[in-house]
Each structure stands twice: as structure tokens, then as C-alpha cells.
Amino acid sequence: MRLTYLGHSAFEIIIDGYKILIDPFLVKLPDYNSMNVNDIFVTHAHSDHLGSAIEIAKATGAKITAIYELANYCAKFGVRTNGIGLGAKINYKWGKVSAVPAFHSSSFIDGTYGGCPCGFVFEVEGKVFYHAGDTSLSSEMKAICEYYEPDLAMLPIGGTFTMDIEAAVKAAEWLGVSAVIPMHYNTFDKISVNIEDFERQIRQHGKIPLIMPIGATKEF
Ligand code: NI
Ligand code: MN
Fold it and tell me: Which has the least CB within 10 A, 62, 78, 88, 181?
């Protein structure tokens, strides 16, 4: 599988020729080629996560997977959706994905309710990775460790709306992952961090910091 960081909490994953997007808020990469997308995962309704999901789904026929209420909202725009609940697992041609709890809020830009927020656990090609969405540190991460045994986590570190660096380091410990890709930082002032602090603290806890510049790609 090939993973590309698209900035903020957005990622592209290529598995077996399938193209998957997570939280496609693409302001940091406006020239990104969003053609030929198969599946889009959206962790919650906030605009920095829903991003261009509906536009991309319309243009490509990609199916949006999201919590039931958010999926229903997207379906009104005529796009294909998988509405799911927390704890549900969906089988795709390229792997399995489960929706897991996130402790945050979820509303549309006009303030209407967007369903509960979530994270996603991807089981792909024998590897397990966890995209936390926006969340606080939570004991759910111990349950995710025990039940899914993730190898890798994408964790928000920017604070103000989510975990900060210290909490994310604790999350990595509770999740039992060997490596962490930091996300949801330095997009705007309120989530600015010194990424070297993350790098140092995560190493001190014996984990590998996978700091990805925007647009960078990694093979797993
Ligand atoms: Ni949010
Ligand atoms: Mn956010």
C-alpha cells in the first residue's frame, strides 16, 4: 500500500490499484489530482474534514463512508454512500474498515448536527492502521489496541480542538503502535506546534515519528 499525506488530516491510500481518500480537505494541496477515487472516508462533518468529499464523489463516482447522519447528508447531493455506526465493520474489495469512537463534536457549517464523530481502523494487506479523526485522548484507545492491534496510527497533535503532542504520545502508548504519523497541526494558528517537540517526545517513548511533508508518499 502507498500512503500520501495531503495536509491537515487528509490522506490518499493506493491499495491494489484502488484509490482511497480520508478527510479530503485539500487547501494545502490545491493541485492534487482527485481523479479515479474509489472510496472516501469522512470522520466527521466539520468542514476541515468533509472538505471536498462531496465534490470528488460527484466527479468520480466514489462512495463516501461516514457515520449514518453524515452519510445521509452526503446522499442528498446524489452521491453513493455507506452509512455506518460505531463498531461496524465494512468489507471492501481492498480490505476491511471499522468505525471507532472519537471524542469530539460534529456539526455542519450552519451548526446543524452531523452525527457523532469517529475514527477509522483499516485492515489492509495484513497491516492495521488507525486514523483517529479529531479526538481527545481516551481509554477507547486501549480497547482499540486490544481488539484491532494496530501497527500504525495517524493522530492529531495540534491541540485546541484535539489532543496535543503530550496526549498524542500517551495515545501512541495506549494504542500499542510502533509508529505515528502526526496530523491536524500547523494548518492554522490555533493548532500550531513545534514538530520537533513531537519528534523528540515520541522517540523518548520508543515509537517511530513518521513526519510526512505535505504531498510526501510512503510505501508500507
Ligand atoms: Ni473537528
Ligand atoms: Mn478538525
Answer: 78
Mean pLDDT of 46-65: 98
Q: Which residues surround ligand 1, an ion (CB under 5 A)?
A: 46, 134
Give the closest ligand to the alpha carbon of residue 70.
Answer: 1
Record the cell numbers describing residue 2, joined without a space. Answer: 502507498
| Confidence (pLDDT) at 84 | 98
Q: What is the pLDDT of residue 131?
A: 98
- Element holding 81 (H helix, E strand): strand 81-84
79: exposed, middle or buried (C-beta count within 10 Å: 0-12, 13-18, 19+)?
buried
Cα 31 to ligand 2 centre (Å) = 21
Contact between 164 and 156 under an 8 Å Cβ cutoff? The reply is: no
- pTM of model > 0.90: yes
8 A C-beta contact, residue 202 and residue 169:
yes
Q: What one-letter code names the amino acid at 99?
A: A
- Euclidean distance between the first and final Cα of the chain, in Å? 5
Cell numbers of 206, please? Answer: 520508543
Q: At what angle do helices 68-75 and 53-60 cross, to 10 degrees?
A: 60
